[in-house]
Amino acid sequence: MISLSYFLVFAAALFCIGLYGAMARKNSVAILMGIELMLNAVVINLIAFWRFRTPEVITGQAFAVIVFAVAAAEVAVGLALFIAIYRQRQTIAADEIDLLKW
Amino acid sequence: MSDPVNFIAEWLKSLMANIGLPTGVVVVIITLIGIVVMATFLLVMDIGLVWFERKMVARFQDRLGPNRVGPFGLIQPIADIIKLLIKEDIMPQGADKFIFNIAPIFALATVLLLWAVIPFAPTILGSDINVAVLYIVAIGAVGTLGIIMAGWASNNKYALLGAFRTVAQMVAYEVPIVIALLVPVILARSMGMQAIVEAQSPWYIFVIPLAAFILFVASIAEIGRTPFDINEAESEIVAGYHIEYTGMKFGLFYAGELLHALTVSAIIATLFLGGWRGPFVDQVPILGVFYLFLKSFLIYYVIMWVRYSFPRIRIDQMLGFSWKFLTPLALILLIVVAILSKVLEGVSPPIFALAMLAANLIIIGVTVTVLRVYARVERKRVGEERPLAVVPDPELQQLIQQE
Amino acid sequence: MTVLHVIFLVTAVVTLGAAVMVVTARNLIHSALWLILSLFGVAVIYGLLSAAFFAVVQVVIYIGAIAILMIFAIMLTRRVKQDVGSIVNKGWWLAGLLALVLFTALVWLFSTWSGFRTPLPELATDVDTIKVLGAALVSPSHYVLPFEVASVLLLAALIGAVVVAWERKS
Fold this sequence. Notes:
Helices cover 76% and strands 0% of the residues of chain A. Chain A contains 3 helices and no strands. By secondary structure, chain C is mostly helical. Chain C has 2 domains: 1-78, Four Helix Bundle (Hemerythrin (Met), subunit A) (Up-down Bundle); 128-170. Chain C has helices at 3-24, 28-48, 52-76, 92-111, 129-138, 144-165. The chains are: A mainly alpha, B mainly alpha, C mainly alpha. The interface between A and C is large, with 74 and 91 residues.
């Protein structure tokens, strides 16, 4: 019988893999990919809790919709920033963009 | 025997239950058999589409088309397939092997996935999910992925350029498609395709023709056919994103494009022309399949007609057309339909349909007027002088007058 | 071992495997394609959780828009030198350790909670969750305010992204 534990452990694993990606990678777009994995894990958690604990109240799903919208907005602005940074510095490796203007 | 598909499915299920398989496994096996049968049926129909296309283009261009290989050239597509299969399979140097091989599979697979939600008959449907319209949008969005993979993996500047243009075009036309798909959803109060077909007492093309038009035009642009085929324009960027593909891989792209055209025709037929609705469909459900394909081929014929009648549109004109014309028009239509549908909620269906039709015609009239005024202003601004057929030189004019 | 179990296990293995490939692939385009596979896996998980709307929205937004945007950004910010050299920064072992510790801590914390092994409840079959969700998102007594704020946020992100990435021809 599928219980909530399966989905919570799965979401925790996905979150931690995303966390490793966001913290360890050099390329900024790779960091953003790690952040996307983390956001997906969060939404899986929300939907799993909705399904298992309170399926009659729609709050979990509404919360998840808002998280989707925020994730999309964040990726759009983040990638626009990366393109602008690349134009200035010719690099988007996170450890090479460590000085403000000189 | 009026519903052979379900009859056979029930018989197979009872056969397997008698062997002693658990119900979960039986359902999975029946689903897999259904998928294989539908995919085979569609791919065989795809072969027929190749023949149909070539015969039609020939007739439009006042010639006969293939008529040597088999009666009326019916075996011609088989000959084409054999030719594609025996061609050399070239992989460009520096290409990403795995992605290069997967991209054509993606292009064809995403088209086949769309048929899962199209209702063939009142009782024959791949999967009756209640978010079917959104599923169509989703698969359309995934289709752009196959194109990027093809363009990127070819290790070729022109392929990449073609892929970028194609994706820009597809993303630009996805927005009017989504909005135009929402209009029948509002009228039918459900996103499920079967529910939309069942709610069409007058066919929706007579109630919301403008939405049908927007969906039609945007779909032609989405599948990348002329007049929106800047991506494979032979005279411009030499076949665009599938320039490096030979043999059967190119065959998959080509077949995928034709099947995609039939698929969007089927979607328009389901949403606006009543899908499987027709006389005697309640007693003999299998007739629904026939009606659906009749209507789909009608729209496919119109798509081909448009293809062989219009010249190609430039990429900036095409993107401008989507963002500056189709998207605002679709949004205005959506708002008007939503408001009207709420205001006229309890009204009897014929008056409701007539009111919607009137609103659509008003919007069309206003749009055409705005376009004419805009065109006149543009012409005045650009200041073209209409050339007069007069001899400009006065001496020469006198000479002519003397004669 | 019901069919649901099998589907969940296969999907979970594929998704987590693809996620690991996302964070360890050297070629960024491969990384993006593995991300697309793991997003597909997450969409299947939503389907298992009877949230069909979210499965489809996941494909539309994440795969159809965000992943494609990422691929475009990768293609526009390529430096050939990037494919040589280390793809992780100096403290990568610490990041890995932290991720592992966090995972263990989360699982241990959850397992001490009484509701950890809640079984799957039955959904009411006459309720159309799409209608309820739609009504909740625009109803003043429910979630219209977050909905409207999210749309303003999206508008701001749209304008902001265009302005930030605009090429200044000076």
